[in-house]
Design a protein that fits this description.
Elements: H1 11-24, H2 29-44, E1 50-60, H3 66-72, E2 77-85, E3 88-98, H4 99-110, E4 115-125
Antiparallel strand pairs: 1-3, 1-4, 2-3
Length: 127
C-alpha cells in the first residue's frame, strides 16, 4: 500500500532529477524517491538489529589516528581494502554489528582530522 505525500525541493535539484530520469528513460519518479529515502534511512537510522555493511572512507594521507581508531574498533571491523590516490587514501571498510553501533562508528570516523568522506552502506541484516 502506498501513501501519497507532497515535498518541496530546490529547483536545481528538481531539474537534475528530471534530466536523470530522461537520460535513463525512467518514467517512475516516485520509485527513485523511494530508493533514495530507503538508502538515507539505512545509512542514518539507529537500530538494534545486527547488520553487515561497508564504510566508504576518504582521507588525507596525513590524517590523524585513522588506523589507531580502526584497531580500537576491531570487534566491528571485518576487513579493510586500502588504496592510495595521489595524497589521499580511500578505504572500503567491511563492518558488522548492531546498526546503531555502526552509525555511531561512522559518525566518529567523520570527526577525525583529515577525514573527507564517510558513508555507511548497510548491505544486509543477519538472518
Amino acid at each position: 500500500m502506498s501513501e501519497k505525500i507532497s515535498i518541496s525541493i530546490p529547483k536545481e535539484l528538481s531539474e537534475r532529477l528530471e534530466r536523470y530520469l530522461e537520460e535513463k528513460r525512467i518514467s517512475d519518479r516516485s520509485k527513485i524517491i523511494q530508493i533514495a529515502l530507503r538508502n538515507y534511512l539505512d545509512e542514518n537510522e539507529d537500530g538494534e538489529n545486527f547488520v553487515y555493511g561497508i564504510i566508504n572512507l576518504v582521507y588525507d594521507e596525513n590524517a590523524d589516528n585513522v588506523t589507531e581508531f580502526q584497531h580500537e574498533h576491531e570487534d566491528k571491523i571485518v576487513s579493510v581494502l586500502h588504496i592510495h590516490v595521489g595524497k589521499e587514501c580511500i578505504e572500503a571498510v567491511a563492518v558488522k554489528g548492531k546498526k546503531k553501533d555502526l552509525v555511531e562508528l561512522s559518525s566518529k570516523l567523520s570527526q577525525l582530522k583529515g577525514v573527507k568522506k564517510v558513508r555507511l552502506i548497510v548491505s544486509t541484516t543477519e538472518t
